[in-house]
Specification:
Helix content is 41%, strand content 16%. By secondary structure, it is α/β, with parallel strands linked by helices.
């Protein structure tokens, strides 16, 4: 038996057809490609954090339900006691759990372009993924979404709010129509909630099929890999049945618990990022040939001159700045690049490099 035959016999066609999720090597570069918070903690706060870790019993399994952290997340996010919260090893694990719980050949719906893991995980599990293209203004194409709901009755609908990679908030009225029309669950993915003055968390009690998902990654804790989802207890109960035990390790539990009690630190960082986002947006739109799109997240999507996106991306990288090239995805993202908002000096270096690239 050849190696290729072995692969064919063992692995499902859906898996063989996938490409692994690629993360660019940012060594030696100004890293503005992954929507991370660029700010670390002060030495004083670091020492306080390390002091909390010294009592972690690494020889013992962590609390399988992360009860103390769960309670802190509910308190910090204003989640009422009547709702339950499930924690995941990043939002990716929560998306995976939701999709693993579905019957074979179930339908999954989202907009496109949006967070790539909705489709990646649905395809991996052999589910029927339906991606409805956004309108030209990056808002939801409501008639098309409603048509797919009627025809395919998706078990889960994912809506990123704000959306990645476009950065905008979808129409609230359109989302409410989708929730009302849905036959299954509607997950509002609020990964970028710290940078957007909008949320569906306070609507959990209004819709039985509504779930709200968040992460601490964009807040400034990407290294912890912690996501969470809130909703009706009977729904969270089903997801807990397939969640692997001890999925949130003891160091993550202790670190997140400490960090979420430092709200003033994160608030200051978020305000700085939002102010720098406004500055970068204006600077980008002042450049000939560049169109920056309004963003409610910690990144900005911008369009370059026709057929120049990849050349500009490579030129920026050669000058030591790494951003995200979205142009190969085509469609609405043709000629588009996405830049994460970094520290002021990083943003300045990016803008200088971009000006140089446009002059080539």
């Amino acid at each position: 038996m050849t190696k290729n035959n072995l692969i064919t016999q063992i692995f499902r066609p859906e898996v063989r057809a996938l490409s692994a999720y690629h993360v660019a090597d940012a060594k030696g570069l100004i890293k503005l490609d992954a929507m991370e918070n660029p700010y670390n903690w002060s030495e004083e706060i670091k020492q306080q954090w390390l002091a909390t870790l010294k009592d972690c019993e690494l020889n013992r399994y962590p609390d399988p339900e992360a009860r103390q952290l769960n309670a802190t997340i509910k308190r910090v996010n204003g989640i009422a006691d009547e709702f339950d919260v499930l924690l995941g090893n990043g939002s990716d694990e929560i998306i995976q759990l939701l999709l693993m719980a579905l019957p074979p050949n179930a339908s999954v719906l989202s907009a496109t372009p949006s967070f790539v893991m909705y489709k990646q995980l649905a395809d991996c599990l052999g589910l029927r993924y339906h991606g409805v293209p956004l309108a030209d203004d990056f808002d939801l194409d409501l008639p098309a979404m409603l048509a797919v709901i009627t025809e395919h009755q998706p078990s889960v609908i994912f809506l990123a709010y704000p959306n990645n990679p476009t950065g905008n908030l979808f129409s609230e009225a359109a989302i409410l129509e989708i929730i009302n029309a849905a036959h299954g669950l509607v997950v509002i993915d609020e990964a970028y909630a710290p940078f957007a003055d909008a949320s569906f968390m306070n609507r959990l009690g209004q819709y039985e099929n509504l779930l709200v998902m968040r992460t601490v990654s964009k807040l400034g804790l990407a290294g912890l890999r912690l996501g969470y989802i809130a909703g009706q207890p009977n729904i969270i109960e089903q997801l807990n049945k397939i969640r692997l035990p001890y999925n949130i390790n003891i160091l993550t539990q202790a670190s997140a618990e400490f960090a979420l009690n430092q709200q003033a630190v994160f608030d200051a960082q978020t305000q700085a990022i939002c102010a720098d986002r406004a500055f970068a947006f204006n600077q980008l739109n002042a450049l000939d040939g560049i169109t920056a799109y309004p963003s409610a997240a910690n990144f900005i999507l911008f369009k370059t001159p026709k057929d120049k996106a990849t050349d500009i991306f490579l030129s920026l990288k050669q000058q030591g700045v790494l951003i995200k090239n979205l142009s190969p995805q085509a469609g609405l993202l043709s000629d588009c690049l996405r830049v994460t908002i970094g520290k002021p000096e990083e943003n300045s270096a990016f803008l200088v490099a971009l000006r140089n690239s446009l002059e080539l």
